[in-house]
Amino acid sequence: MELLVALFTPNRKIRRFSYSFITYLGFADTIGAPLNTQSQRSSARPTGHTRRLPMPLPMPTFLSSPRARLRTVLLGGALLAGSWTSHAGAADYRFVTEQFAPFSYETQGKAAGPMTEVVESLCAAMKKSCEIQVLPWRRALDMAESGEVSGIFSMLRSPEREAKFFITQPIVRSAYSFVAPANAGWSYSGPASVKDRSIAVYGPSGTSAVAERIIKEAGGGEIQMEVANDALLKKLSVGRFSDKTVGFINRDVGQDIIAKQGITGLAFVGDGAQILYGIGLSRKSVTQADADAFDAALATLKASGTIKAILTRHNLQTAE
């Protein structure tokens, strides 16, 4: 019975596994029907109205008797049901984030970083239990948009995002900044200053979208997409780009990469846009009342100085 219940769990991996398990044991067409053994196949007499069934997989030794098969089904069902229960009921809220140092990252298999600490402080203030998992951004975003988890961070406010998320008041301030060789003799002073430049930027991403907007306002220049921020900075540092190429990156992310990887010879030469990060709460799994409660708790933590203390400890700026 537990195995059948697992077919309807919200967790897609458990659903797929349980269906595959049932199918393998011969229960997909008629739950509880005898397995199609070799002896049954050989004694069957096909008729004009009989559908030829596909050859099943060989029966493993440990499933050779009806009692063994029943025991395996019950054990598998119990394990799946247990996984589902602990997965769905272990926490009041489940959050996902990405490897996005210095804002969020994974340390020894656990989520860490200032934004993680902020979320944990919010949950403690609300007396709610919360789980946080670090995943690739696209997978994390898909889970949050579908309502498989409660929320995601860090998130910028935009009409597209607000259609799918309640976005909290801003928590941390950063900037999309230009970076160039220290001896380049160039600095950003507005869109016109990049008219004859090539902008190297990680993308497609929110950062590259801002760079494209600046190029459009400048009426000239070009975008050069890079596969990763660290690769961009390393290539810029060793002169792999032309003299007219400058980098564009989240300033705090860039400073963190430069410090951790020992990249030298670069300087930040102007901010292209100020950005504010908050927490996105999925409209498919969180109510307006829940979102209001998060914002109220966040306002209280801001007023008490808790948020500022967390961000200052990590050399980040508050949104205010």
TrEMBL record:
<feature type="region of interest" description="Disordered">
    <location>
        <begin position="37"/>
        <end position="56"/>
    </location>
</feature>
<protein>
    <submittedName>
        <fullName>Transporter substrate-binding domain-containing protein</fullName>
    </submittedName>
</protein>
<feature type="domain" description="Solute-binding protein family 3/N-terminal">
    <location>
        <begin position="92"/>
        <end position="319"/>
    </location>
</feature>
<dbReference type="Pfam" id="PF00497">
    <property type="entry name" value="SBP_bac_3"/>
</dbReference>
<dbReference type="InterPro" id="IPR001638">
    <property type="entry name" value="Solute-binding_3/MltF_N"/>
</dbReference>
<keyword id="KW-0732">Signal</keyword>
